[in-house]
Amino acid sequence: MKKLIFIALLICIKSIANAQQLSISNPNAPDRVGERVLSFSCPLDGIAKKDLEVWVYYSTNKSDLASENCPRGRASCSKIAGDPSKMLCKFYFPHQDHDKPNIIHPEELGGAEPPTEDNMRDFIFQLQKNSSIKQAHTICFTDKSPKIINSPSLVYYKVVRERKATKRTSDIFEFTMPRVFVIGYMGDSYASGEGAPYSGSDKWDDDFCHRSEKSGGMRGINKLIERRRDLVVRVINTTCSGAKIGHIIHNRQVKGNSSRKPQLEQIEDWCKANNRDNIDIMLMGVGGNSMGFVPLAKAAIVGPIEKVATKQSVVFDFDKESGNTVNLLRELPGKYDTLNYFLENQNYSIGKVLMMNYPNMLHGQGNELCNNDFINSLLKDPINLFSCFPKPETNLLFNHINLFKSILTDLNEAIRNASERHGWELIRISAINSHGLCNCKEPYFNTTISSSITQGDLDGAIHPNSDGYMELYRDNVYSVLKEAVSEVQQKEYVERRKNAIQDAKAEAKRKMDLQIAKTVARKKLQERYKAELSTKAETQLDTLKFDLPKNTQPAKVNLKHNDDPRPKSNVDDKD
């Protein structure tokens, strides 16, 4: 009787434990490069979604999960089409780009479905930028005691579903945090952000290179970071104003008494310092200095101005520079081929190369080409003469506008052809826009006057200003970049799975070969043992033979008549 009561008690305890156990399904932990999102299906058990909260507890220490002070955050959940018994939940592990990534939209708090990811990203962006919105919706930020866990740490997590004071807890799961996604960024002044300095005394992140976060490439990268809370990114920015293709590959860039290593070498130094052997995406914008476009433009713009300002001879010789540009343009395809060779033969691998071409600064309002007729019509308004560009600036650039148009077209054509030859993804910045050098009302490019005002020198002339990098570059870079990230993640994931399968096969073959070798060795040992026993037996037999005295033969056994064991008979033996 006591035994039956004990068994019934155990069954009761087990039933209570099962009732408190939460059985999540389809848990997908981060497993792709840079990924920081966890998704899973959580049962509703007939309870309305708005009455439930789903939390994820996580730590690198398994025992921490038992504490209420454990790092945790509330997951965002939505209905699953065709399955009213479950909801799909997502949780984002905090990282350097989003230290509090888990946010519940006010509409979801009221029981509505969470907004689309794009709308949620816009909402997050507004929360991060607008303090008043942040104060009004502080409840939206759900991360408590957030902890950034880096690769390759082992992470433990559990899911807790709460309904008022009732909690149900899942089993504990584990995974290894994937490595960060790395973007290398190389190039010249159009890549570094020349023409868009910061306000104040510290105008550049790097004074030597005139490098700025306002550059087009960095605006695109930062948009990716802002809108991908599931992705953690590292950027190695080596862009430098004045860089040629040679400065990317193997030449030091020298200015006065200072210099910089080749940009590929700078990235290699980062890889060594961080124990990395790969760059996931290499974003580039280079070639204009290598074929003389910028020197030619300076000869057209800066030369006449400096002549007027200094009353000295023209600093740049336009005819000489135009001849050099035509010759260098012929050499540009070979230089891009050399660049690709070096990209493919670094001590680190590159997942994908993205190449930006150059923006078109030669059109004004109404997409009118900035020729002298158009310029003269603008200069009838005295405001344009002083606010947009001085008269000397129009002498050569706009007199030779067709030459510049041809050269810019050929430069971008060379970039397009090189991208096709070498499998680079082209980011097209070159579309005609109405905000070129001769748009005085809404310019996207610096003239000598605006360059002097914003950065205190003429280096920013003919380069995009802050608005130009924003409007011409950001979205174009972002749209290509986000697709490239997904492609590289998938490619790396497939390659890693393929390698894992190959490693598993190799390990299985190794074990099988080892087992076969053991079997063969065992068989040989048995045969050897049998042979040794046989040899030993023969030796012992021979020893017995040789131990007998000489001339001694084994005794013959002769049975006498009287020794016959058979019973005696009265029959006469003679018969």
Task: Give a description of the structure.
The chain is of the alpha/beta class and 575 residues long. It has 16 helices and 16 strands. Strand 1 and strand 2 form a beta hairpin. Helix 6 packs across helix 16, helix 9 runs antiparallel to helix 10 and helix 10 runs parallel beside helix 14.
Task: Record the SSE blueprint.
Layout: H1 2-20, E1 25-28, E2 37-43, E3 53-59, E4 72-74, E5 76-80, E6 83-92, H2 106-109, H3 117-129, H4 131-136, E7 154-163, E8 166-169, E9 173-176, E10 181-187, H5 189-192, H6 216-227, E11 233-237, H7 245-249, E12 253-255, E13 258-260, H8 263-273, E14 278-285, H9 293-310, H10 318-344, E15 349-356, H11 372-378, H12 382-387, H13 392-396, H14 401-422, E16 425-427, H15 448-455, H16 466-547
Parallel strand pairs: 10-11, 10-14, 14-15, 15-16
Antiparallel strand pairs: 1-2, 2-6, 3-4, 3-7, 5-6, 7-8, 7-9, 12-13
Helix pairs in contact: 6-16, 9-10, 10-14
How large is the share of residues in beta strands? Answer: 15-25%
Task: Return the average pLDDT rounded to an integer.
Answer: 84
Low-confidence stretches: 13-19, 307-315, 571-575
Note the gap between the termini.
Answer: 93 Å
Query: Cα-atom Rg, whole angstroms?
Result: 40 Å
Summarize the structure.
The chain is of the alpha/beta class and about 575 residues long.
Keywords, separated by commas or semicolons:
single chain; 575 residues; alpha/beta; five-stranded antiparallel β-sheet; five-stranded parallel β-sheet; 16 helices; flat; disordered C terminus
